[in-house]
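Reopening: structure tokens for the flavin-adenine dinucleotide complex, inputs below.
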Amino acid sequence: MQAQTYYAATAPRMRFAPLAGAADVEVAILGGGFAGLATARGLQERGVHSVAVLEAQTIGHGASGRNGGFVFGGYSRDAADLVSDLGLVAAREFYAHSREAVALIRSRIHTHGIACDKVEGGALWLNWFRHSARAERQLRGQARWLRENLGVVWDEMAPAEVRQWLDSARYGGALLERDAFHFHPLKYALGLARVIEQAGGRVHEHSAVTAIDKADNGGFVLRTAQDVAIRAAQVVVAGGGYLTQLLPALTNARLPIATYVIATEPLPEHLRPIRTAAALYDNRFAFDYYRMLADHRLLWGGRISIQEREPARIAALLKADMLKVYPQLAGVRIEHAWSGLMSYARHKMPQVGQLTPGLWFAQAFGGHGVAPTTAAGEWLADAISGRAGLPAGLQRYGLTPVFGQAGLLAAQATYSWAELQDALKEFVT
Ligand SMILES: Cc1cc2nc3c(=O)[nH]c(=O)nc-3n(C[C@H](O)[C@H](O)[C@H](O)COP(=O)(O)OP(=O)(O)OC[C@H]3O[C@@H](n4cnc5c(N)ncnc54)[C@H](O)[C@@H]3O)c2cc1C
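Re-run output (same inputs, fresh job):
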């Protein structure tokens, strides 16, 4: 079994030179994940061409190049909570931003011909609690609520229809978000980085930012681990769950939380259990997320934890989860296993704003960040280029403290509690 992610093993080799000599740009961006890349591209699309992305490791090294590959609407925070936080009108607008981001990713892939194994199959949200009439009613209630409040249409599927698509007796009915798609996230990240570079932007790998200081005559100076300086009028910090103590105001406001993924060997035709192009997940708090890959492997993700684990342990844990749904795959080999760090705020919404004039940040996209990072890139590009201020609703979701290790332990306890609730719900219904 390989510790390398499936994505790293199958992406083209693309390298971006480290920052080697002093430079001067309009906007310097820390972090070569989706948040950093989307901001850089958004700026270029608004005529700000002098941008530099500085990545400590390689492009997509963080969550952006290791995730499930689901590109769908919404945020980590429940849509119903958005409505109670912001009111219906602002929540609808906010939700719409995430759906526009899905469309923007799609159009960037198309416009720039980014080869990233995109599959237009939607996302299928499955009812795990198949014996519960109440859970089935809740699923349909959710579809009605989304339609009536947010104007979003998810198709309802009966249990029998689900059974036609999946060789598993595990689920009841489902809701299909047709507008969603899935892709190879690392190929997309690398492709977008190349687009930024070809449009005149700088993209530097192995260029960890170790200091951000105010420059004497305005703007900022960023220093990298190789002690090279880059000057910038404005800075965006987008280090996700991988940012270390560079800016405590940011790291103290989000928890780095791990989640795990495996990929099987390519499945022979008679063992392929899924006859839909959709990406799949279920309605537990601690849900599985999975999809078929272009080469007939099954990619399977799940669990959240405060620790990153060894690949062999991840493979064992997630294979056991997979067999709860598809026991017929017992003899299948797991060829890749990896973990990734998400960054979570206590309110489970992205944190996007300005620490001091000209020093911007975008973090805490949680486990639902592919579209929201792109939305954040648009908000920041509008704000930095002077086109529009940040959406007012963002102020509701500030840099709330997470209390370090105690916060991590509390998050793990909440997750274990939710797992127990899921188990009980299954048991009593
Ligand atoms: C396993 C996994 C599965 C997921 N599945 C999905 C999914 O299917 N769909 C979905 O919508 N979301 C999913 N998510 C969430 C989504 O991937 C993230 O929310 C999103 O990618 C976050 O992007 P980011 O740019 O904020 O952070 P990251 O992608 O983590 O990027 C941050 C980057 O900053 C760099 N960095 C940190 N510090 C420095 C520094 N000092 N100098 C320079 N660079 C630095 C890091 O090396 C890293 O590359 C998943 C996440 C994980 C981990």
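The radius of gyration is 21 Å. The CA atoms of residues 122 and 179 lie 6 Å apart. Marking as resolved unless the reporter disagrees.
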